[in-house]
Amino acid sequence: MSANTPRYRSVRVGAALDTPLSRWLWLVKWILVVPHYIVLFFLWIAFIVVSVIAFFAILFTERYPRGLFDFNVGVLRWTWRVSYYAYGALGTDRYPPFSLGPEPGYPARLEIAYPERLSRPLVLVKWWLLAIPHYLIIAFFTGGMRHGWYGGGGLIMLLTLFAGVALAFTSTYPRGLFELIVGLHRWVLRVAAYAALMTDEYPPFRLDQGGDDPAPAPAEAPAPSP
């Protein structure tokens, strides 16, 4: 990224490639993650309901209620961890925790800066009109939004399959492939946060590859006054 390129600040997606990785475990991960998929099915229903409530809260108060915000961040965080373990990346053999929290010891991480104020006019159009160009791009990455953003098909799943084949025959995950896959997920998760009304910062049309996100860490929320 050029030194003159504006830095995207709202969403920070990180990942560490575990080594060594099993040559054959990836063949059965589709069975191992079934409990997560069941939980995520209900969590995503709740995510949509919470987003609708947040829409009206922002429209009337310019604020995203903090408890609702933290819940939706947790759903995205959980989704990213499961995707990273399974067929969205195959970047770790450590089973993902059943947790909405940050889990800093897990190799897939997601942080979203809490916005103190959000635009009322933007909340009316950003999740459908303004995000359309990004939707067209990430549909290619994920194989269509109907599958969610944790590996339902598309370019990400194809590249992950290549990584699995490389593991099976060489016991090595190609580093360049890992950095590309994480970059694609980073793009998708930035758009997800924007479309879910969690930020007014428009996602860049930029593929920031690699495990380390170039975005600065989100600032901590100020402590409540006594």
Element-by-element helix/strand order? EHHHEHHHH
| Sheet with most strands | 2 strands, antiparallel
Distance between the termini: 43 Å
| Unreliable spans | 146-151, 221-226
Helical segment count: 7
Instruction: Please estimate the helix content.
Output: 40-55%
The figure for the number of domains is 1
Overall description:
There is one protein chain. The chain is mainly α. The protein has one domain (11-195). It contains seven helices and two strands, in the order βαααβαααα. The protein has helices at residues 29-32, 34-61, 66-85, 120-130, 132-142, 154-170, 175-195, and strands spanning 11-15, 108-112. It has a two-stranded antiparallel ribbon with strand order 1-2. The termini are far apart. Mean pLDDT is 91; it is low at 146-151 and 221-226.
Question: What topology emerges from the helices and strands here?
Answer:
Blueprint: E1 11-15, H1 29-32, H2 34-61, H3 66-85, E2 108-112, H4 120-130, H5 132-142, H6 154-170, H7 175-195
Antiparallel strand pairs: 1-2
Helix pairs in contact: 2-3, 2-4, 5-6, 5-7, 6-7
Supply database-style keywords.
50% helix; 7 helices; 226 residues; two-stranded antiparallel sheet; disordered C terminus; mainly alpha; 4% strand; 2 strands
Structure summary:
The chain is mainly alpha-helical and 226 residues long.
